[in-house]
Amino acid sequence: MRTLYTMTGREMRLAIDHPAQRRLLPLLAELITELRACRDDADYFALQMKLLGHRRQHEGWRAESARAAKRVKQGKQPTEAAPLLEVPGGSPMDSASWQFQATVYTRLTHQLRSIGDALAWRVLDYRRDLLVALARHLPPGPMDPTKTGTGGEINFITQQWEDHQRLGLLHDLTNCLRIADVTVLNREQEMLELYELKTNPERVDPAQVTRIRMAANAVIRGTSLPGDDPRQRLLAVPVRYATHLDKLRTGAELARSRGAQTIGVPGGRAVEIYNMPAISRRWDEETFAAVTNTRKREAARRAQVRGDALIRKSSADIAGHDPFIPPWAIFPLPASDCALLIANYMVFNTTLSLRLVQEALTDAGVWSELAIDELSQNGGTVLRVARRGKLSGMGIMNFHPLLLELADLGIWARGVAHVLDAGPDGSRPWPFFQPEGQCWM
Predict the structure, then answer these.
(1) pLDDT digit of tens for each residue in the chain (441 aa)?
(2) b/e for 172-200, b at 16 or more Cβ within 10 A?
(3) 269: which strand partners?
(4) Contacts of residue 145, Cβ cutoff 8 Å, sequence gap at least 6
(5) Cα 77 to Cα 52, 67, 99, 245, 400, distances in angstroms
(6) What is the b/e burial string over 100-124, where b = at least 16 CB atoms within 10 angstroms of the residue's CB?
(7) Phi and psi torsions of 394, nearest 5°
(8) Dihedrals phi, psi of 92, to nearest 5 degrees
């Protein structure tokens, strides 16, 4: 899928300003509000079916826009099923216009997936160990409502509810549930049941069965996570998780009227928050560019960054993509702000001082060394850390809790120490804190 980072400035504006994106924004806020009001499995089932309806509708518009692009390229007219072409300056007989609209609808289906992710996080009690285990597979493809398999999965979860009052999570509605097709909550036996559904029950895929078994054993027995690397295992960190997301909430409130706001976050961090609707009312593009540069410098100052020992991360275009980052819809922000984040109408950038991170690691008994020479390399090592003779490298992904979840730095550093203490050299644990549900919506 094309991201904002791969688009030209004009394409980015067209995608964000597309009428379908603007229509989806209030729907996202509505779905988040309804999710937060859910009190039992009946509520979750009803919301899931409502979400399913919207996903199928948007997937249909995506598919028909892509089909129109192909037909026009062949010199044919779009079919009557094609949605209205709403690309400014586009022509119904221009294949590129239809293809761009298909791209927009693909983006919207991912935004709806992020609501499915939030539903899964809430139903599964924010159990990051479960969610990590079930996310370790290839990303899902488009949902095809016309496929027999899709209809079978929908019939299965409907039957589970109507016949047994058991809630089944449809994985195709999410980005984070990638192993099996359906997770059923068996409340009576206090367990989860994973189902890989086939149109022909005799066609069992051994690889799929192995992934399901590995995911279950990784959570229950601490064995290897699904995938090709047997060194990767879940690791419970016996520390109560805590974040500074209250700071983000305060900054988002101020950005609604000011357009741009910088806030300091304990632990060597500063967050710039940009509210696009407010910005469009206050500044033109040239002025906004100058404001952005000013906010970046202010962020570096507030984060007490010295020299080049910093890293930055943006919230832009994350919704419905990275299965290991908590979905915006569960963040403790107003539903309207969560919707703005999902649709990229609000963006926050976090600047993190690695010098202060090192100080926190030292306090936790962890030696660290900056890998400045590798910071410019995508996916390269940011810090080298060691404790009690065990040496490891930390990449940008290891800092996501600090950059996006605004995790408490001291708790995060204690987690690093725990990871280094657990297991032999060469192991690659996936840490998760217990509990963490109190941090979310």
Answers:
(1) 778 888 888 899 899 999 999 999 999 999 999 999 999 999 999 999 999 999 999 999 999 999 999 999 999 999 999 999 999 999 999 999 999 999 999 999 999 999 999 999 999 999 999 999 999 998 888 887 667 678 999 999 999 999 999 999 999 999 999 999 999 998 887 889 999 987 666 677 788 889 999 999 999 999 999 998 888 999 999 989 999 999 999 999 999 999 999 999 999 899 999 999 998 888 887 887 887 888 888 877 877 766 668 889 999 999 988 999 999 999 999 999 999 999 999 999 999 999 999 999 999 999 999 986 655 544 578 999 999 888 888 999 999 999 999 999 999 999 999 999 986 666 788 999 988 889 998
(2) bbbbbbbbbbbbbbeeeeeebebbeeeee
(3) 265, 352
(4) 56, 59, 60, 151
(5) 30, 10, 14, 51, 47
(6) bbbbbbbbbbbbbbbbbbbbbbbbb
(7) -120, 125
(8) -60, -15
Sheet holding 346-353, edge to edge: 260-265, 269-275, 346-353, 310-314
> How far apart are the C-alpha atoms of 407 and 432, rounded to whole Å?
12
Q: Count of residues for the chain?
A: 441
CB count, 10 Å around CB of 351? 25
Widest pairwise Cα distance in the chain: 69
CA distance 390 to 168: 43
CA 302 to each of CA 185, 267, 272, 290, 351: distance values in angstroms, whole numbers, following the listed order: 46, 11, 11, 18, 9
